[in-house]
What we know:
Blueprint: H1 2-25, H2 29-54, H3 57-85
Amino acid sequence: MSDFFTSLCFVIILYILFLLYRALRGPTLFDRLLAVGTMGTKTVVLICLLGFAYGRIDMFVDIAIGYALLNFIGTIAFAKYLERRGSSI
């Protein structure tokens, strides 16, 4: 069962690398912001899968919740920055 979760982790890491490309080369600011938000969400899923693979889901879920909160706060902060700057996406 651990091999299954490990292979899923590698697939999600590959997906995160594709999103990293979109975040760096996105044609618009909205594409970049969406890619970074999706990378944060996939990272939370990756942390939970690692918890299943190691058999310590209770500890890894706590870490994933903390990371999800940081991702959300970062998105809100960036949206406030864009609002003050007066730019539209």
